[in-house]
Amino acid sequence: MKRPESFEKLVAILRTLPSVGPKMSERMAYRILRMPEEEMKVFIQVLQEAHRQMRPCQVCGHWDDSSPCGICRDSGRDRAVLCVVENSQDVLAVSRIKDFRGIYHVLGGALSPLEGIGPQDLQIASLMKRLEEEPVTEVILALNSDIEGETTAQYLADLIEALSSKIRGNGRPGGIKITRPAQGLPAGGELEYMDELTLSRAFGGRREFDRN
Ligand SMILES: [Zn+2]
């Protein structure tokens, strides 16, 4: 059955959103069609406002309505501990751990040769610059435990280790310790879906990164 063009267009644009399959996009489309005019107006307004106001922080890359973001501006944070994550959603997940008070760096994804995502496509150069200039003594690599996350962690560990030897004689005698959350993150697991308790345990028991 051929569906009206305007409906097809709506379904197609909804499908560009993450995790939205054919069934879900149709359900969403019908929900939108049933919206009263007033609700539709608010819906569009909220989308536009968020899109206009939110931006990636120029320091850490986390999406916020100001740059530097609220986390980077927070003077109560421990600037010696920097947590590297793939996406802004992961910052939200880690920030639910009450006893983590460090700072963040958002890579904007993970290395993936298959999808053609290389180091230059991620916020890696800016991370290394921060590590060189800021008084960081521990980097927590809190990346997803899938192949891309592992590859990225390994790649970053090599870079940070090299930088660490360079700065050891330079005001940070201990260099930069590289750690990762303890086991407890299921293999292939995505950080943003971890419950608070699992994440909290994984962070509490974090261990030195094992380079191979
Ligand atoms: Zn920030």
Describe the structure concisely for a colleague:
It is built from eight helices and seven strands; from the N terminus they run H-H-H-E-E-H-E-H-E-H-E-H-E-H-E. The chain is of the alpha/beta class and 212 residues long.
Total beta strands: 7
* Name of the level-1 CATH class of the largest domain: Alpha Beta
Q: What is the assembly state of the chains in this entry?
A: single chain
Distance between the termini: 56 Å
Overall pLDDT = 91
Rg from C-alpha positions? 20 Å
Overall shape: it is elongated
> Main beta sheet, described?
5 strands, mixed
CATH topology label of the largest domain: Dna Topoisomerase Vi A Subunit, Chain: A, domain 2
Write the element-wise H/E pattern from the N-terminal end onward. HHHEEHEHEHEHEHE
Please, how many helices?
Answer: 8
Strand order of the largest sheet: 4-3-5-6-7
Helix content: 40-55%
Which molecules are bound besides the chains? Answer: zinc ion
- Uncertain regions spanning at least 5 consecutive residues: none
Question: What structural category arises from helix and sheet content?
Answer: alpha/beta
